[in-house]
Design brief:
Elements (H helix, E strand, L loop, with lengths): L1 H17 L12 E6 L10 E7 L2 E2 L5 E2 L2 E7 L3 E6 L11 E7 L2 E8 L10 H4 L42 H7 L13 E3 L5 E3 L7 E2 L5 E2 L9 E9 L11 E3 L11 E4 L2 E2 L6 E4 L2 E4 L11 E11 L2 E7 L11 E3 L11 E4 L2 E2 L6 E4 L2 E4 L11 E8 L1
Antiparallel strand pairs: 1-6, 2-5, 2-7, 3-4, 7-8, 9-10, 11-12, 13-19, 14-18, 15-16, 15-19, 17-18, 20-26, 21-25, 22-23, 22-26, 24-25
């Protein structure tokens, strides 16, 4: 017994002489993480969680060797104790990999603070929540945490744009807000490539060049004038009144398309026009239940665009002839409006058009006495 005591005394003196810190049975501080894990469908998670870390020095000076642990999660129940990483002398994070059926589901990072009470995964998970890739994610532990130890948080590490691979390239191609950007406005691209808000009245139409104006007007400096669509002429519709007025003077006069109950009327046969005054011929006065609608242009000039108004195509209307020819080739072909005795026909159903040739379908062949009129746009 005496010999054993003398050996222990010698060992203690020897250790004190060399300056060793002998902490028999000492363990670093631990924080408990306890939670219930769920899948996205609401079912409890079953699988394996692998928690790994790099070598670091705990807050009490303990050296924590790089290693990993595997936890079998059954019915979503998680319980693990880890050395706090946010208060460590060499701050670090834990890399946590979730596996289900042998396949990796996702990886995230945990920053574990010192706490005397159990923490949940939400308390330790680092934003933005999931981190892809292997190894310790390049994140900085938070500066504050629900710590009960009173330790001073570690200093943050600041990363520049150039420190993150590909970030500068992504920022360069990312659209930015222009000076006129506004929520609820149509977006237009300004001269610098930024997204601006379209300027103008809320009832205006937006042109492809980014300008705005009354619907029917042209954009930028490529054209002038105005389109007037579906205007109701002023005047009493009572079966006797023959005089009606437009709000503007059509220019050219031939651009006026006047509809009565959906049928196109003919200038000279059904009415005459002088300035903005429409006079119906004898016996054609609109009745009380009639609806009049007028559309026309007002000195519209658009670079590269011409208008053809109510042209009579060449061809015999005799009940047999199906082929008629326009004076010019419409551009685009879909701009053609074909009227037969005032009723607009349907392309593909009543007729087809190739270049400047109209071919009527069987059953829609113009009969003797029919009036065929065509309006369309052309390229200039």
């Amino acid at each position: 017994m005496f010999r054993s005591r003398r050996w222990l005394l010698c060992a203690t003196l020897f250790s004190a002489t060399l300056g060793f810190d002998v902490r028999l049975g000492a363990t670093p501080p631990l924080t408990t993480i306890q939670d219930t894990l769920f899948n996205s469908d609401g079912s409890r998670f079953n699988g394996v969680i692998t928690i790994s870390w790099q070598t670091f020095e705990a807050s009490d000076g303990s050296d924590i060797a790089a290693s990993s642990i595997r936890l079998q999660i059954v019915n979503g129940l998680l319980y693990v104790q880890l050395v706090p990483s946010t208060t460590a002398i060499t701050p670090t994070v834990y890399t946590v990999q979730y596996s289900n059926g042998g396949a990796s589901v996702y990886t995230e990072a945990w920053a574990v603070s010192a706490s005397s009470t159990a923490l949940t995964v939400a308390n330790v998970r680092l934003a933005p929540g999931t981190v892809t890739g292997a190894g310790s994610p390049p994140v900085t532990p938070p500066t504050s945490s629900p710590s009960s130890g009173g330790s001073t948080p570690p200093a943050q590490t600041t990363l520049g744009i150039s420190d993150i691979t590909g970030l500068q390239t992504a920022l360069t191609v990312r659209p930015v807000e222009g000076a006129s950007f506004a929520v609820g406005r149509a977006a237009v691209i300004d001269s610098t490539g930024a997204l601006d808000g379209a300027q103008g009245n809320l009832g205006d139409c937006l042109h492809v060049d980014g300008t705005s104006g009354p619907c029917g007007s042209t954009g930028g400096t490529s054209g002038t004038g105005t389109f007037v669509d579906a205007e109701i002429p002023s005047g009493a519709i009572n079966g006797s009144n023959t005089s009606f007025a437009l709000a503007n003077i059509p220019a050219p006069v031939a651009s006026l398309e006047l509809f009565r109950n959906g049928l196109l009327l003919q200038s000279g046969n059904d009415y005459t026009i002088s300035g903005n005054s429409i006079t119906f011929l004898s016996g054609t006065a609109p009745q009380s239940s009639d609806i009049l609608i007028a559309s026309y242009r007002m000195s519209v000039t658009i670079t590269g665009v011409g208008f053809v108004d109510l042209e009579t195509p060449a061809g015999a209307a005799n009940g047999n002839n199906t082929s008629f020819t326009l004076a010019q080739t419409p551009s685009p072909l879909s701009s053609v409006a074909v009227f037969r005795n005032g009723m607009r026909l349907a392309s593909g159903l009543d007729y087809t058009i190739i270049s400047n040739t109209l071919t009527f379908a069987a059953g829609a062949v113009p009969q003797s006495g029919d009036v065929i009129l065509c309006s369309y746009r052309v390229a200039q």
